[in-house]
């Protein structure tokens, strides 16, 4: 069984991993350690958690545009998310995902708050789909 | 978003991986901002030129690219003068990496002019669609020249430069260029360029990201440059109009756009004067944005045959400085320095002073945070007098 959620494709490619949902926006510059993939922003709901290999869902990006290069750094360090879901894409995350070749979608039909941490999902950034692999 | 058959081929990778990725960036931004199509551009100014900003990974990314820009393109200021970096006290490891960034851009076909005044280097005309990055350059291009540009980030400007197009949204569209707030400046004395910097500093805080319309000012081009640069720094102004002066203000008038109903803010002469103060400083810096030929002439005239008693740094585009070796020679004979490629705000060479006197509303806004120094605002004459110890 699987459920398909329609979204809008932003960065091409297919990525699969365990879902990790953040209720808050993420700043990659100074908010995520590019060497370890761990969220380091003090007080952030994901503080201390690794985003490496995850299907990372969060509302939108915030902070400096240099954050796009941090996303690229995560990829080069093998610590990038396997895919990104945003409620609404903005330039920092969209550009970063494309630089780092991370599949990305936004505007999912189902709110990201309804996604469940830990379930396996596949994102197709070309078709703009989220497939939840419901075991 | 509409893509023509050539765009589709680029996106499918038929023109190589770099162009595919650049097209993907532009399409994604088009989606984010709701653009219906692309518009061809005539030039680009690419941010992300200073190693201090983009770091190791930005440099790695630039090095991974394999394409040439499709339109004349220049860079933002970098962290040092590319030749005289030792004279400015820049560490050699930083200089090495900064040169690596320049080499990466050279390989992409970007002209290595590192300046916030690309309009002195590449001719830009009314109505041109362009993709520029630096906030004061964007403000000048939109307002003083009447070109059309959004404020681009590094990758988006580079993508536009390589593809030769940008998504058609924001300030490329006439309907988004309407005035949103009006300013009336009450000052009866003759205003000089630093007064315009102070007006911009005050107006930018009020305007935020709205499009201001100014009544009753008669600024020249250098004064317009100072006004816009300060508003882009203290606010996020990317376009403004000055009644009967800026090109779009005339079009607004011809088309009968009513601006009388806008919120109108008054800036008084006392408010402007209160920004200026008289006090001693450790150093003096001029050229934010980079100096024009006229400004270099004025400075050379004030310094001719004199000797500075404090560090005096003048910043200008390489192309402008090298076109005027006599002016640069006169200025440097006084002991002042004319730096190319870099600027007051981004150079690490400016961060070891306790207080810096500037003639720029933009520098006045940025120096406290970017250089860790107190900023004192004065006219160009006052700045030169302070450097001469007069």
UniProtKB/TrEMBL annotation, chain A:
Gene3D superfamilies: Phosphohistidine domain
InterPro entries reported in the protein's UniProt record: PMDh-S-like, PMDh-S-like_dom, PMDh_S
SUPFAM superfamilies with a match to the protein in the record: LeuD/IlvD-like (SSF52016)
Enzymatic reactions: (R)-5-phosphomevalonate = (2E)-3-methyl-5-phosphooxypent-2-enoate + H2O
Assigned EC number: 4.2.1.182
Catalytic residues (positions): 64
GO molecular function terms noted in the UniProt entry: hydro-lyase activity
Pfam families: AcnX_swivel_put
Domain Phosphomevalonate dehydratase small subunit-like: 26-105
A Gene Ontology biological process term: isopentenyl diphosphate biosynthetic process, mevalonate pathway
UniProt name for this protein: Phosphomevalonate dehydratase small subunit
Source species: Methanogenium marinum
From TrEMBL, chain B:
UniProt GO BP: isoprenoid biosynthetic process
EC number in record: 4.2.1.182
InterPro entries the UniProt entry points to: PMDh-L-like_dom (IPR007506)
Domain spans labelled Phosphomevalonate dehydratase large subunit-like: 1-384
Keywords, comma-separated and alphabetical: Iron, Isoprene biosynthesis, Lyase
Domain of life: Archaea
Official protein name in the record: Phosphomevalonate dehydratase large subunit
UniProt organism field: Methanogenium marinum
């Amino acid at each position: 069984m699987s459920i398909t959620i329609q979204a809008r494709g932003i960065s091409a490619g297919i990525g699969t991993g365990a879902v990790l949902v953040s209720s808050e926006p993420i700043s990659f510059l100074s908010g995520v350690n590019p060497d370890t993939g761990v969220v380091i922003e003090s007080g952030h709901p994901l503080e201390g958690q690794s985003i490496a290999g995850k299907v990372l869902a969060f509302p939108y990006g915030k902070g400096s545009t240099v954050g796009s290069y941090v996303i690229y750094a995560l990829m080069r360090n093998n610590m990038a998310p396997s895919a990104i879901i945003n409620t609404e894409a903005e330039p920092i995350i969209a550009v970063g995902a494309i630089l780092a070749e991370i599949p990305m979608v936004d505007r999912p039909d189902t709110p990201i708050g309804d996604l469940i941490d830990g379930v396996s999902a596949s994102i197709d950034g070309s078709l703009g789909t989220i497939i939840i692999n419901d075991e | 978003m509409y893509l023509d058959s050539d765009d589709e081929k680029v996106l499918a990778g038929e023109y190589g991986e770099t162009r595919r990725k650049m097209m993907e960036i532009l399409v994604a931004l088009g989606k984010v901002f709701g653009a219906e199509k692309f518009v061809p551009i005539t030039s680009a100014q690419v941010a992300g030129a200073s190693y201090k900003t983009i770091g190791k990974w930005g440099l790695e990314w630039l090095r991974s690219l394999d394409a040439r820009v499709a339109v004349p393109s220049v860079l933002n200021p970098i962290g040092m003068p590319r030749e005289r970096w030792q004279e400015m006290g820049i560490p050699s490891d930083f200089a090495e990496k900064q040169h690596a960034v320049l080499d990466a851009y050279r390989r992409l076909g970007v002209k290595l002019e590192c300046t916030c005044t690309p309009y002195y280097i590449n001719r830009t005309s009314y109505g041109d669609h362009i993709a520029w990055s630096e906030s004061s350059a964007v403000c000048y291009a939109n307002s003083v020249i009447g070109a059309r540009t959004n404020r681009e980030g590094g990758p988006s400007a580079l993508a536009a430069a390589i593809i030769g197009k940008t998504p058609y949204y924001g300030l490329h569209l006439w309907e988004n260029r309407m005035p949103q707030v009006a300013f009336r400046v009450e000052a009866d004395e003759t205003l000089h360029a630093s007064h315009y910097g102070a007006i911009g500093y005050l107006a930018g805080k009020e305007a935020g990201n709205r499009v201001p319309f100014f009544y009753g000012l008669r600024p020249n081009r250098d004064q317009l440059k100072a006004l816009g640069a300060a508003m882009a720094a203290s606010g996020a102004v990317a376009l403004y109009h000055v009644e009967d002066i800026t090109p779009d203000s005339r079009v607004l008038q011809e088309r009968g756009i009513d601006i009388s109903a806008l919120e109108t803010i008054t800036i008084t002469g006392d408010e402007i004067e209160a920004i200026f103060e008289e006090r001693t400083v450790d150093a003096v810096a001029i050229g934010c944005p980079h100096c024009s030929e006229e400004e270099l002439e004025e400075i050379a005239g004030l310094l001719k045959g004199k000797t500075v008693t404090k560090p005096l740094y003048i910043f200008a585009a390489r192309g402008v400085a090298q076109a005027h070796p006599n002016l640069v020679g006169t200025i440097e004979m006084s002991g002042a320095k004319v730096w190319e490629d870099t600027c007051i705000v981004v150079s690490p060479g400016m961060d070891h002073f306790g207080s810096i006197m500037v003639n720029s509303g933009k520098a006045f806004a940025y120096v406290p945070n970017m250089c860790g120094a107190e900023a004192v605002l004065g006219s160009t004459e006052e700045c030169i007098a302070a450097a001469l110890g007069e």
